[in-house]
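Duplicate of earlier report; Transglutaminase-like protein input re-posted below.
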Amino acid sequence: MPLDKSDFYYPDDRSDAYTVIEINMMEGRKVETKKALIMALFTNIESSLGLSPVDIEITIKEQPPHCWGFRGMTGDDVKDLTYKVNV
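Output:
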């Protein structure tokens, strides 16, 4: 969500490219998996967009499956996901 520069507060040692990324996901991934995602984002954003990792802040927010709703049901009732959550 873009903010007007006057409404966006960030540390003095960051540039105007400072970017905050929030990822919402169903809980169940291993710590190593989440850390690998964060590191891949730092690497890929820097190589693709030229943003320095010091200007990127990443937060992963997890909720239990029963707090998710999609396709008319809650996440803990879904039995046909084509991907694994516990990785």
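The chain has one helix and four strands.

Merging into the original ticket.
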